[in-house]
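Hello Y.,

Per our agreement to keep a running log of every chain we model this quarter, I'm adding this entry. I've kept the format consistent with earlier entries: sequence first, then predicted structure.
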Amino acid sequence: MEDLLKEIRQAGQYVQTAQDLAGSERLEQARQKLLQVEDVIRQYRERGDLSLQEKEILEGAHQELEGYHKKMKQIEAMHNPVGFHQY
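Predicted structure for the entry above:
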């Protein structure tokens, strides 16, 4: 579970870096990191033997991840022409 929390924090850093630098390479790195975190969350959910506390942590991580997805969409909308959104 600690690895999930580490991954979520790192994903947040990637999104913040993408926002600060707004380069397409940074956006892609952040996008890839979010996909990696989604995979980690999925793996935990598939285990099924989680304690109540672990389930709560997992749900919090998922909500945080959703927030990062929304932030990425906003960043991309600010830096890409209208009608062209990769995310």
